[in-house]
Amino acid sequence: MAIRSSTGRSGRPGNETDEKVTLRERLGALRNLPAFFHMVWDASPSLFIANVILRIFRAAIPVLILYIGKLIIDEVILQTKQSHGSDHEHLWWLISAELGLAILSDGLGRSIALIDSLLGDLFANKTSVQIMEHAATLDLEQFEDPTFYDKLERARQQTIGRTVLLSQVLGQVQDTITMFFLAGGLIAFNPWLIVVLLLAVIPSFLGENYFNEKSYSLVRGWTPERRELDYLRYMGASDESAKEVKIFGLSDFLINRFKELSWQFYTQNKRLSIRRASWGSLLSGIGTIGYYSAYVLIIWRTIGGKISIGDLTFLAGSFRQLRSLLEGILSRFSSVSQGALYLRDLFEYFDIKPNIASLEKALPFPRPIQQGFVFENVGFRYHNSERWANRHLSFTLHPGEKLALVGENGAGKTTLVKLLARLYDPTEGRILLDGRDLREYDLKDLRENIGVIFQDFVRFKMTAGTNIAIGKIGDKENLSRIESSAQQSLANHVIEKLPARYDQMLGRSFGDGVELSGGEWQKVALGRAYMRDAQVLILDEPTAALDARAEYEVFQRFAELTQGKTAVLISHRFSTVRMADRILVLDNGELLEIGSHEELLQVDGRYAELFRLQARGYQ
Ligand SMILES: Nc1ncnc2c1ncn2[C@@H]1O[C@H](COP(=O)(O)OP(=O)(O)OP(=O)(O)O)[C@@H](O)[C@H]1O
């Protein structure tokens, strides 16, 4: 359990300086916006177009309303000066026009919000699918790397958070258009007003920008800890951990670690929020002073008779709206560029390329295998380890042969089969299949022809039928195939006792799911091996949880059913191992002995020693 800080930064989680982002980087991140809009467009072109058109219409409304307001006031003043019985028709027209515009503006606003949220949902769904699709192409090794998980986590967050970015950028465009309309009026009156306006707004923009940068750095720097918090929250309350949490009395331990980490984040965030609020009030005070200076200027000119009262309301209204628009645009610029930085995380994740992939002109997997697999001085070291998990491995796995792998815990047996299934590529040496490097074969074809059931197989919280069909998911509707696979792996006896048989939900996560015992799960997982038409079958400790009778039966069947197929078995039970044609003994990742049961007994080496040790235990 990664209860210590997973960053390895010894007690300095979320260190801001490590994750500092410059203004230049933020501007640079805006380059991600076109690609982002491309993704949004792909989510729904029609909604996207509708959104843009409605926003352009809405952008023109504020200035029209202000202008009509000015005309109304001028008209009212004119009419109060005129004699009784003057014609009010013009005034009513103006009032109706303003009312109409106000209603239209509200309707447009609601339609835009609706489209934003629909588009947001579509975008979130589409991106989640893309993240899953991309994850499927990546290497196992990449999944074992914590920095990869941080990236994946940040990318996942994009699917939810980025819809806000969409409305922000489109809102930005809309407000900019409105601003141009309003600014036109102000410039015609007095260009200096624009200068006052900018001076009033820029300080608070700089403040916003500064604090957004800090908050992005804080959140980004805290990604590993946030993952740890999620993990602790899950471990503290999940069916997977409940048993051991109770037995070992772990809840206080988990809760305390959670409290410690979450408190650290809270205090860092609180400090930043307080600073942000204090500076924000001060800087926006400057903006208010600017507004009132301009207001005084406009009033002065009105008193001097240079402009009408209607002009006064129009200009004061324009200035006030321009100020808030400009403040909005500038502060939104900070969040847009911050959003674009998060996008960078998403695109960085999409840019991760798998190392293990098919070559352009990949070979089809041989049908049938002619010469078998040849290991030529194969060595493998996990990327995060100094130790060689396999080294100097040279042997041949003949077509149709049943090979058993034997060795102590950590000897490298699972690693060897992972190399065979090309979950990893050798660090040194090579593996040949029918004389060609394994890397030359089409990866999908290779995986289809090599069926592996791992010791830590996944207990999918799905129906019993699906759990078997996993072995060949394309056949998930083929009930007779699923049933015969279940028979072969002895899972049929387990499944027939379940209330809903093959439709029974397994695991306790959903609905009326039923939990199976370890051995029962293993029989179900073994069924997956029989679903496949794979030429090579690999069973990594497939019978560890089976009782003695079940194990005997499983192997009787396995021998019959894999006639003519190549099979690799990993087992610590010598009763199983001796049924193999040949046995490969691994020690510290290296090949120690290889031969049939009888040959190895004659050699009287490690195998003979371990065999006798186990046999003695049964006497
Ligand atoms: N994903 C991994 N990252 C780093 N090291 C690993 C990883 N998986 C295994 N190892 C290391 O590689 C070595 C070989 O492991 P492997 O799982 O192949 O052993 P094994 O013979 O199958 O053991 P067991 O009998 O316990 O299943 C071990 O020292 C193990 O710690």
Automatic annotation (TrEMBL):
InterPro entries cross-referenced by the UniProt entry: AAA+_ATPase, ABC1_TM_dom, ABC1_TM_sf, ABC_transporter-like_ATP-bd, ABC_transporter-like_CS, P-loop_NTPase, Type_1_exporter
Subcellular location: Cell membrane
Pfam families membership: ABC_tran (PF00005)
Residues passing through the membrane, by range: 47-69, 179-206, 279-300
UniProt entry keywords in alphabetical sequence: ATP-binding, Membrane, Nucleotide-binding, Transmembrane, Transmembrane helix
Membrane topology: Multi-pass membrane protein
Residue ranges of domain ABC transmembrane type-1 in the record: 52-338
Signal peptide boundaries: none
Domain annotation ABC transporter: ranges: 373-613
Record GO terms (molecular function): ATP binding
PANTHER family attached to this UniProt entry: ATP-BINDING CASSETTE SUB-FAMILY B MEMBER 10, MITOCHONDRIAL, ATP-DEPENDENT PERMEASE MDL1, MITOCHONDRIAL
Protein name in the entry: ABC transporter ATP-binding protein
Source organism of this protein record: Xanthocytophaga flava
